[in-house]
Design goal:
Shape: globular
Number of helices: 9
Strand order of the largest sheet: 2-1-3-4-5
CATH class of the largest domain: Alpha Beta
Number of domains: 2
Distance between the termini: 33 Å
Order of helices and strands: EHEEHEHHEHHHHH
Radius of gyration: 19 Å
Oligomer: single chain
Number of strands: 5
Helix content: 25-40%
CATH architecture of the largest domain: 3-Layer(aba) Sandwich
CATH topology of the largest domain: Rossmann fold
Length: 250
């Protein structure tokens, strides 16, 4: 683990919307105590100043969708003591991984006037498909609380206390009525990784699965309940292909 007094961090963007980097900036006051122990040497969302590595911690947002990104992530891994990937794009390929189920060449020819100028891969893949990842933070965007816990743990030289259960456990902790059982509302909470604090069920909406699948999700047991709520084959097919389109749900 990096030393609390000499920690150098870098934040990197790959194919993404920048939302997870903005979560880091939203920490504001909470980050102030950490600035005594951590220095951001590369963070283009904040400053154009970029210091050369190596870096104690690298935080990576976004998926790999171009040949340049596939090469760059290998360089970042070599330069980083600890590699943290954040968000649905970095952990599962993101919503742009919908290209994995279609013909990307057809898309490119339709969208761009000069598709020959566009260098892209046929798939959008998570960072872990290319290099070894030390820690993952799920979500679209990630949880501010989880991010602060991870950074604090790394600076303290301990393992972070991150959830490893489903959204259903968060509903129980908040004392929420189950929207799936009580109202028949389609909900992916039973198979979705915890971390959002049951944001959608708290306002009587079903979970959309933006934190991706939990460990060993029991999707076959959930599907009959979703069908009972009125979802057909097409809807079932689509509901698992949103924020974490290429994730392994079963």
């Amino acid at each position: 683990m990096p030393s609390p007094k000499t920690t150098t961090a870098a934040v990197w963007k790959f194919t993404s919307c920048d939302g997870c980097q903005l979560t880091l900036l939203d920490c504001e006051d909470e980050l102030l105590p950490l600035t005594e122990h951590i220095r951001f040497a590369h963070f283009l969302e904040v400053t154009s100043v970029s210091e050369p590595g190596p870096y104690d911690i690298s935080i990576v947002e976004g998926s790999v969708t171009t040949p340049e990104e596939a090469e760059r992530i290998r360089w970042i891994r070599e330069q980083s003591g600890v590699l943290v990937v954040v968000g649905a794009c970095a952990t599962s390929g993101g919503i742009q991984a919908l290209r994995n189920f279609a013909d990307v060449e057809e898309f490119r020819s339709i969208v761009y006037a000069r598709p020959d100028h566009i260098a892209t891969l046929a798939t959008s893949t998570p960072i872990s498909a290319h290099v070894t990842v030390d820690y993952e933070l799920r979500g679209c965007p990630i949880s501010k609380t989880q991010l602060l816990e991870l950074l604090t743990a790394l600076l303290a030289g301990r393992e972070p206390d991150l959830p490893d259960t489903s959204v259903c456990t968060e509903c129980k902790r908040r004392g929420l009525t189950c929207v799936l059982v009580a109202d028949g509302t389609p909900c992916l909470g039973p198979v979705t990784h915890a971390g959002c604090g049951a944001l959608c069920p708290a306002v009587n909406r079903g979970c959309y699965g933006c934190f991706g699948p939990m460990n060993r999700p029991n999707v076959p047991a959930l599907v009959p309940l979703l069908r009972r709520g009125g979802m057909g084959d097409d809807q079932l097919h689509l509901v698992f292909r949103t924020f974490n389109a290429a994730a392994e749900w079963s």
